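Side project, low priority. Logging it here so it doesn't get lost.
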Amino acid sequence: MSLLISDEVVQASGLSEAELLQELILMLFEHEKITLGSASRFLGIYN
């Protein structure tokens, strides 16, 4: 599944697309919607 975020929303956030994606992933982790392992994988952080 893909999620489309309008350019207007990205611009309003003041973040780059990559930064906005990172913030979204971290928010999902903080709200316990995804695991640390999933967040790490989505962010490309591996041990």
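Brief comment: The CA atoms of residues 13 and 32 lie 23 Å apart.
Revisit when time allows.
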